[in-house]
UniProtKB/TrEMBL annotation:
InterPro entries with a match to the protein in the record: Phasin, Phasin_subfam-1
Superkingdom of origin: Bacteria
Residue stretches making up the Phasin domain: 43-141
Name of the protein in question: Phasin family protein
Taxonomic lineage: Bacteria, Pseudomonadati, Pseudomonadota, Alphaproteobacteria, Parvularculales
One matching Pfam family: Phasin_2
Matching NCBIfam families: phasin
Native species: Parvularcula mediterranea
């Protein structure tokens, strides 16, 4: 019986050691998984915060750009109003129908040229604003691509 007890004790000891080793391995794997998950969640939070900051920066650039465009349009409207007053006075001073039509043609021509110039100017301002606003968003996109390539 003594031999059976020794064999049983050894088998029990080996089984306990196996269970203990398996439990330690499982615990280490769980700890490693939790650590990786925590690290990933921290990175995700940081990434999302950086994205939010980029969106806010882009929105700020757009707001400033729209403010400049609005001011430009107000200034243009003022100058057009003043120019129109001068041109209308020229129309009222016309003594013949030919002078009237010449003044009217001049008013129309200069108004159209100014309008086309203004549209081009505002277009350029809008394009510049869009490019400036896209910069922080483009950087975040590049960061996302880089992060995905690391995985």
């Amino acid at each position: 019986m003594s031999a059976t007890r020794k064999t049983t004790a050894k088998a029990t000891e080996a089984a306990n050691e196996s269970v203990f080793t398996a439990a330690n391995t499982a615990q280490a794997s769980i700890n490693e998984g939790v650590e990786r998950m925590t690290k990933g969640m921290t990175q995700m939070g940081s990434f999302a915060q950086d994205n939010t900051e980029a969106v806010m920066q882009a929105a700020s650039v757009v707001a400033k750009g729209m403010e400049k465009v609005t001011q430009e349009n107000v200034d243009y409207a003022k100058s057009q109003f003043e120019t129109a007053q001068d041109k209308v006075q020229a129309l009222t001073k016309a003594k013949t129908p030919q002078e009237f039509f010449e003044a009217q043609s001049e008013l129309f021509r200069t108004s159209m040229e100014a309008q086309i110039s203004q549209v081009n100017k505002v277009s350029d301002m809008m394009i510049a604003t869009a490019k400036d606003a896209a910069q922080p968003l483009s950087k975040r996109y590049s960061a996302m691509v880089e992060l995905m390539q690391q995985r």
